[in-house]
TrEMBL record, chain A:
Residue segments, region Disordered: 1-25
A GO BP annotation: transmembrane transport
Stretches that traverse the bilayer: 32-53, 96-117, 129-149, 190-213, 248-271, 300-319
Start and end residues of each ABC transmembrane type-1 domain: 92-319
Protein name, as recorded: Carbohydrate ABC transporter membrane protein 1 (CUT1 family)
Xref: InterPro entries: ABC_transporter_permease, MetI-like, MetI-like_sf
Family statement: Belongs to the binding-protein-dependent transport system permease family.
Membrane topology term: Multi-pass membrane protein
UniProt entry keywords in alphabetical sequence: Cell membrane, Membrane, Transmembrane, Transmembrane helix, Transport
GO CC aspect terms: plasma membrane
Keyword Transmembrane helix: yes
TrEMBL record, chain B:
PANTHER family: ABC TRANSPORTER PERMEASE PROTEIN, GLUCOSE IMPORT SYSTEM PERMEASE PROTEIN GLCU
Protein name as it appears in the record: Carbohydrate ABC transporter membrane protein 2 (CUT1 family)
InterPro entries: MetI-like, MetI-like_sf
Membrane-protein topology: Multi-pass membrane protein
Residue ranges crossing the lipid bilayer per the database entry: 12-33, 70-90, 102-123, 135-158, 179-200, 236-257
Domain of life where this protein originates: Bacteria
Length: 326, 272
């Protein structure tokens, strides 16, 4: 249909051989036109992404600690005080623990579900949709609902109470195993597990969809040939499927990691910072110090640390996929 | 025999996990349908004694202005950013110039940054141009920071349109815009649906920009829901009804157009 449209355009009637040099000219004006259409976006990204990051970096090196801007140079002072700070040290511990638990469960659960759902089972799409629909929801909705479901004085605890377990979920202040590092207690804050459950509920669909797409991409003949050679289903899984899913795992890890490192809304809606900051995250700290306490310099420093933590693996990933494309 | 057993195990595991995943919607729906006296910690799991839509009426009453705000925000932001992404993707896939791939990678980085790292200058900027605390301000923000993902999706999408189609059109003297209008656009319907659903869902659900750029009567639904849930005086049945109302539009999109939603999810994550 598209071609038919084009044939009706007057351009068609132009004699071809004569216009050869002219066409080259047209093409170069076209090229200019193409770049000029892209230009606003390039400028926007240059200013609003790179320029603004630079400006945030500048703020993070300043003495802007109140509503009125004070951009005099403070050096790395804001960063140094941050790393001394109990709340920020807690945040670093929480982010690390949360990211590891969250990624591990999402990747593993998503992969297991995908392998099971890919086995041509009945009601396949029903199962798929049950695991996928939370993806369409906001972290705010997820947070509000899970705060109610895991409410320590009710929720699923009414079931666990009968088993003799007294779970405090996100109000638990225990840190396990509790090793003193600097000012904070190192280990897994038990309260974070509740947040991990909510985040896993929301994001497993993502990794499930990615793994399913990966599994569908593995040619049936490959598995069939292995079966002919007497390979068991488990061997096929280990020797063929798993290696072929490796690039998917990499993508899942990268995407989940950048979501987890900048997480803000889920914590904000579900638990807040928690007692002793057991569920605090840099995103929440940044928001509160900047927009509640007007400590812009400190907020800027947290933001830059968050950015660096994401950039460390996103930049190599982007360069890697750029090379893979060529 | 062994196969039947393993199949049985698969069903048992899947059903058990499905039940776990359905806990939140179950609790949400039954709580929202309970009258206030019925909402108690001990009877959290019990079905409501009678259906009661009062909490929906109350939640709707409280959230309606914010729901409207979000519609005013989401519709233009989605349309503009899809159009922009389409043009960018067209240029970056079919009119490659020297350094185009590097520019694309530089643009793409913008999709992964924590937005906290641009928030302080962004708010200063919006204040200076008078768009702070306004829906147009939020539209602008979502269009700008939507550029990377929409460009990526369209660029990947257009990579599947054969270059020969464009070349023959060029032979016929069609230029940049004519090719876009007559060849690319008609072939982009699916691309537009995928990108629009993706942007609609993301902007609808977004919270950080919404909570920092708007106050009170300009606030989108997610900020209002968070305020509703955060206040001590609002009861659980109303909170749950509010959460359902806030989730309904994106949920409906997922139910009706789930296939495209998943395509967007994959297009936005798997590169090259």
């Amino acid at each position: 249909m598209a071609e038919a449209n084009l044939q009706n355009t007057p351009a068609r009637t132009q004699p071809n051989p004569k216009t050869r040099p002219k066409r080259k000219k047209i093409r170069s004006t076209d090229r200019l036109l193409a770049i000029s259409f892209l230009l606003p976006s390039i400028v926007a990204v240059a200013v609003f992404v790179y320029g603004f990051i630079g400006w945030t970096g500048y703020v993070s090196l300043s003495k802007w600690h109140a509503i009125l801007p004070d951009l005099s140079f403070a050096g790395l002072e804001n960063y140094l005080t941050l790393f001394q700070n109990f709340r920020f040290q807690s945040d670093l511990r929480n982010t690390l623990i949360f990211t590891i638990l969250f990624i591990a469960v999402v990747a593993l659960l998503g992969q297991c579900l995908a392998v099971m759902i890919d086995k041509k089972i009945k009601a396949e799409s029903l199962f798929r949709n049950i695991f996928l629909f939370p993806m369409a929801l906001s972290f705010i909705v997820t947070g509000v609902v899970w705060r109610w479901v895991l409410n320590p004085s009710s929720g699923v605890n009414l079931l666990f109470d009968k088993l003799g377990w007294d779970l405090k979920w996100y109000t638990d202040t225990t840190i396990w195993p509790g090793i003193e590092i600097g000012k904070v207690t190192g280990g897994i804050p038990i309260a974070l597990i509740a947040v991990v459950i909510a985040a896993v509920w929301q994001m497993t669909g993502f990794s499930l969809a990615m793994y399913l797409a990966g599994l569908r991409g593995i040619p049936e003949e490959l598995k069939e040939a292995a079966r002919m050679d007497g390979a068991s289903e488990f061997q096929i899984y280990r020797k063929i499927i798993l290696p072929m899913l490796r690039p998917i795992t990499l993508s899942v890890i990268i995407i989940m990691a950048h979501i987890s490192l900048k997480i803000f809304d889920l914590i904000y809606a579900m638990t807040g910072s928690g007692a002793n900051f057991v569920t605090d995250m840099p995103g929440v700290y940044m928001f509160e110090t900047t927009f509640r306490s007007h400590n812009y310099a400190e907020g800027g420093a947290i933001a830059i640390i968050m950015l660096l933590s994401v950039a460390i693996f996103i930049v190599p990933y982007l360069i890697h996929s750029r090379k893979g494309e060529q | 025999m062994a196969k039947a057993v393993s199949r049985g195990t698969i069903y048992i595991i899947l059903i058990a996990l499905s039940l776990c995943f359905l806990i939140p919607p179950y609790v949400m729906v039954i709580t929202s349908l309970k009258p206030f006296d019925d909402v108690s910690l001990e009877h959290m799991w019990a079905l409501p004694s009678s259906l009661n839509f009062q909490s929906y009426a109350e939640a709707f009453d409280k959230l309606l202005p914010n729901l409207l705000n979000t519609f005013y925000l989401v519709i233009p932001a989605t349309l503009i950013s899809a159009l922009l992404g389409s043009l960018n993707g067209y240029v970056l896939s079919k009119w490659k110039f020297r350094g185009a791939d590097w520019i694309f990678t530089m643009i793409l980085f913008g999709m992964f940054i924590p937005y906290q790292s641009i928030l302080i200058p962004l708010i200063q900027f919006l204040r200076s141009i008078g768009l702070y605390n306004s829906i147009p301000g939020l539209i602008f923000v979502h269009v700008v920071y939507g550029i990377p993902v929409t460009t990526l999706m369209f660029r990947n999408f257009y990579a599947n349109i054969p270059d020969s189609l464009l070349e023959s059109a060029q032979m016929d003297g069609a230029g940049f815009l004519k090719i876009y209008r007559h060849i690319i656009m008609p072939l982009s319907i699916t691309g537009f649906v995928v990108v629009a659903i993706w942007q609609f869902t993301n902007i609808w659900n977004e919270f950080l920009f919404a909570v920092t750029i708007t106050t009170t009567d300009q606030q989108p639904i997610m900020v209002a829901l968070q305020n509703l849930a955060g206040s001590q005086v609002v009861h659980w049945n109303i909170q749950m009804a509010g959460a359902i109302l806030a989730a309904l539009p994106t949920l409906l999109v997922y139910i009706l157009l789930g296939k495209y939603f998943i395509r967007g999810l994959l297009a936005g994550s798997v590169k090259g």
